[in-house]
Design a protein that fits this description.
- The strands form 5 sheets. Strands 17-14-16-15-19-20-18 form a 7-stranded antiparallel sheet, sandwiched between helices. A 5-stranded antiparallel sheet has the order 5-6-12-8-9. Strands 1-2-4-3 form a 4-stranded mixed sheet, covered by helices on one side.
- The longest helix is centred in the C-terminal third of the chain and has 23 residues.
- The chain folds into 2 domains: 154 residues, Uridine Diphospho-n-acetylenolpyruvylglucosamine Reductase, domain 3 (2-Layer Sandwich), CATH 3.30.465.10; 200 residues, Vanillyl-alcohol Oxidase, Chain A, domain 3 (3-Layer(aba) Sandwich).
- It is α+β, with helices and mostly antiparallel strands.
- The mean pLDDT is 95.
- It contains 12 helices and 20 strands.
- The chain starts with a strand and ends in a 12-residue tail after the last helix.
- Flavin-adenine dinucleotide (FAD) binds next to β3, α3 and β12.
């Protein structure tokens, strides 16, 4: 039976961004039929609906702006079809549980957001990504089909077929057609998670992936999976200067993407700056004293070629890093877990820091095209150091996507941090990058989203939203 809470709902009124909202009631359906019935009844009065996943979002997008919250936490069914290798999940399934579940079939779901406790519904709705996006792309690439309950309570099944007549069209279970003309929107070619994905040759699912709870309630998700790698090689490479680190990344990125000499093929390339390493030193005394930065890489391999792969990585590491001998290599599950935890520890330690002394974290999420990345990186460092605020710079360097997390301690520091944020947003937009590569826009990044797109594009997005949600019920306050 559906649960209805009107007291003790404070945990549903916030997310990891610390924004706090308000709502009258939280509904927790146990089945999609209950969710559908509820949404149909809310349509009558046009009650605002905020869909809630795990609440790990960083932009306030699941923070309600009045009306009701519908939580997906009890919608957790999961099934795997061994003929098609497709995984079908209800939206409340926690991301970490998916790969645990898939292990029995020796398969895995490639995207891996650092926050393993996010829900699959949330991950699809924000087009989440993570470290392995370097090789495999974001959630969008892995969605095979979706079932969505629209605001009038009707269900649409959405496939990932490519559209070839520039008209977007889906038909609901009672035969109602929702269609609109597709225009070319200047979507950045970088990793990107800000606003609707629309293009004349898109897949039908693309519109709903990354729509941040604004178009309907995603009630079922079918995902593509891949065979689990036979063996995995990984490592954390330390550098005593950023110049050589950037050259190393550039080389690894180029060889991996173009497979130019076939020697290495990274599936992830992640960066830690000197401040990140300093934050982690209290847990990892073995971090070399002279290390100013580090790169975590992983490559899938097979038993027979493992030694050759190690050798190839070793050659390139030795060429670029004077701390090559200090590299932490990982070849078995325990060693890999240690490296993944090292990466995972950083954002959680960052939250510890906020709790102790900083008023609020200001975190960036921009990505820029590869050819502009090195200049962007140096500008980041220059402005961050000039701001004289505690910070860490880390993240998905393979995708030219770093997070600068700043921890201002007073109003003046907040102003200086905001200046860094705004300037780096402008610089990303100047080179056709994105204001958000993976966290989305939500309620907190609207001003930048509105800077990124012209009024014409924003009006077009609003018209799409109105088609599916004419009473503006879903995700009120997100994006627009
Ligand atoms: C420490 C930390 C690390 C993180 N690392 C990453 C990372 O590496 N990569 C990354 O991409 N993100 C990362 N995030 C951000 C966050 O984890 C992701 O955005 C995640 O996808 C949110 O999932 P959730 O279930 O918590 O969604 P919520 O926060 O609950 O909701 C997010 C949005 O999805 C909508 N939504 C949820 N379920 C549905 C549904 N069934 N139907 C329609 N709309 C729905 C909500 O309405 C809301 O708009 C990180 C966050 C933290 C705190």
């Amino acid at each position: 039976m559906i649960k209805k809470l009107s007291e003790d709902i404070s945990s549903y009124l916030k997310d990891a961004s610390n924004l706090i909202g308000f709502a009258d009631i939280v509904y927790i359906p146990e089945s999609k039929e209950e969710a559908q019935e509820l949404i149909r009844s809310l349509y009558v009065d046009g009650t605002p609906i905020t869909v809630s996943g795990s609440g790990t979002g960083l932009t306030g997008s699941r923070v309600p702006n009045g009306g009701v919250v519908i939580s997906t936490e009890r919608l957790t069914a999961m099934s795997f079809d061994e003929t098609t290798n497709l995984l079908t999940v209800e939206p409340g399934v926690v991301f970490r549980d998916v790969n645990t579940f898939l292990e029995q079939y020796s398969r895995f779901l490639p995207p891996n957001p650092t926050e393993w406790l996010c829900s699959i519904g949330g991950a699809v709705s924000t087009n989440a990504s993570g470290s392995r996006t370097f090789k495999y792309g974001a959630m969008r690439e892995w969605v095979h089909s979706l079932e969505v309950i629209l605001s009038n309570g009707e269900t649409v099944t959405i496939s990932s077929e490519t559209i070839n007549n520039s008209t977007y069209s889906v038909v609901s279970q009672n035969g109602e057609e929702f269609s609109f003309k597709l225009f070319s929107v200047p979507i950045p070619t970088t990793k990107h998670a800000a606003g609707y994905f629309v293009s004349p040759s898109m897949r039908t699912t693309d519109l709903f992936v990354g729509s941040e709870g604004t178009l309907g309630f995603i009630q079922s998700i079918t995902l593509k999976t891949l065979p689990k790698e036979e063996v995995l090689l990984g490592g954390i490479v330390f550098f005593d200067n950023y110049k050589r680190l950037l050259q190393f990344v550039d080389e690894v990125r180029t060889i991996s993407k173009t497979k130019s000499d076939g020697s290495i093929e990274a599936r992830l390339i992640e960066f830690f700056d000197e401040n990140s390493l300093n934050l982690l030193r209290k847990f990892y005394h073995e971090i070399p004293k002279s290390a100013k930065g580090a790169i975590w890489f992983e490559q899938e391999s097979i038993e027979e070629s493992m030694d050759i792969d190690i050798d190839n990585w070793w050659k390139i590491i030795a060429e670029y890093s004077s701390l090559a001998d200090e590299t932490w290599f990982a070849q078995n599950d325990i060693e890999h877990r240690k490296l993944a935890e090292f990466r995972h520890k950083l954002p959680s330690e960052v939250y510890e820091v906020i709790g102790k002394g900083s008023s609020a974290k200001i975190g960036t999420d921009m990505a820029v095209p590869t050819e502009f990345f090195d200049d962007y990186f140096w500008e980041y460092l220059r402005l961050l150091n000039q701001a004289n605020v505690q910070y860490v710079l880390f993240g998905h360097i393979g995708n030219c996507h770093l997070h600068a997390n700043m921890f201002p301690k007073n109003d003046e520091e907040t102003t200086r941090s905001r200046y860094v944020y705004d300037t780096m947003i402008s610089k990303a937009l100047e080179v056709k990058g994105t204001i958000s590569a993976e966290h989305g826009v939500g309620k907190l990044k609207k001003q930048y989203f509105h800077k990124m797109y012209s009024k014409e594009v924003l009006d077009y997005f609003v018209s799409i939203k109105s088609l599916f949600d004419p009473k503006n019920q879903f995700g009120k306050g997100n994006l627009f």
